[in-house]
Amino acid sequence: MININTLKNRREKLASLIHFPIVLWSGKSASKNFKANHYPFRASSHFLYFAGIPLENAAIRLENGKLDLFMDNPSSDSTLWHGEMPTREDIAVQIGVNNAYPLEALKDTIDGVATIPVQDIFTYEKQKAILQRPLSINQESKDIDHQLMKAIISLRLTHDEIALKEIKKAVDVSVEAHKMGIKSTKKCSTEAEVRAVMESYIISQNMTCAYNSIVTVNGEILHNETYHNLLKSGDLLLADVGAETALGWASDITRTWPVNGQFSSSQRDIYDVVLAAHDACIEKMKPGIEYRDIHLLGAKIMAEGLVNLGILKGHPETLVEKDAHAVFFPHGIGHLLGLDVHDMEDLGDLAGYQEGRTRSDRFGLGYLRLDRPLKAGMVVTIEPGFYQVPAILNHPQFKEKYNKDINWDKLQQFSDVQGIRIEDDILVTETGAEILTKNLPTQAEEIEAMMIK
Ligand code: GLY
């Protein structure tokens, strides 16, 4: 939903934070083997935030809240292949532009402008050539680009009403896609078939995937992007699939379910430990709470659960202090969500980490992507997981360090649990938190019941 007032409001807020002009490029998709056969286009999220729609090969110039648009009108050749497209002037009206010019005119108005480097190399090289200077996201720099990044982060960290509507639209489609994936699994014979069920629903809603789907019986491979495995009775299937709206807003959900419709007792034991961590973290969320403390709470509940199952030995808090939990839960508890699935991570840790904070080199904290106090209006994921990663469990250094903390014989009894993750999207409210993905069950019995129907 394009809402000119919201776009103008975002532009005015930015103008109140910085006092120099800026130019944001949208980017351009790369071609495959010939010009017209290209990879899907995805506009830069910073551009989308202020322009509202994914215009390819365009730029906007913002100064004092006023927005000028730079893009070329479609050529007659383009009309032949792509049909009648809106003109620059049509788009200017649609998104509330002050003046609209051909792209060529941009070079005459770039004195003293700040920008943010885009991801695609073609546009990135163009940005540097037009501005005649290097571009980087160097966190030490205090130049105007850096000031712009910080200003945009301060806006995008919390979401306005229109952004939340879009995120909720993406969430609703993802919830339905997961339900369809869960319900269809018993009829599917490969990971690819379940992925197809889930993604085809997303596509049918005129959305795309916000990231490459993970639909795997090897849930211990955290970002597994292969889908060739056969589904076997006794396997767990982990699906991390999220839709993105046509205007670029993301969702991100993970569920793990038994291929045959029933968790084994060992799978159920671990599932409930992960769910306990998930629930405890969400319960704790409210403005002012440090996300790092949420992560550490998740780690403690995981450690507690694994001690109760006899897999870890010792006191949960001591185990977390020495990062023993991270042998099984090596990633962070989640991340920011917005126009990108790891929102604003194109800026390194500038968005995720509060000023003055840097990533820890601790095994149990190094993959924490967000280290800020929570604020009302933020949307974050909560996604604890348990994994048996051979590269960790067989690593000589970890084996030696954590040998006495792990009951290896006991662990063998959980050999049918490769990876379990439960992930929801959470809006921080004035008083607590709202689970945007609440319509997708998390309880093991509820998931099993969905598979019977
Ligand atoms: N859902 C994929 C990720 O968070 O990396």
Number of strands: 14
Distance between the termini: 35 Å
CATH class of the largest domain: Alpha Beta
Write the CATH homologous superfamily of the largest domain. Answer: Creatinase/methionine aminopeptidase superfamily
User: What form results from the Cα inertia axes?
Assistant: globular
- Associated small molecules: glycine
| Model regions low in confidence, pLDDT < 50 over at least 5 residues | none
User: What is the count of distinct domains?
Assistant: 2
Major sheet: order of its strands? 1-2-3-4
Number of helices: 15
- Measured as a percent range, the helix fraction is 25-40%
Please give the CATH architecture of the largest domain: Alpha-Beta Complex
- SSE series: HEHEEHHEHHHHEEEEEHHHEEHHHEEEH
The proportion of residues in beta strands is: 5-15%
Largest sheet: 4 strands, mixed
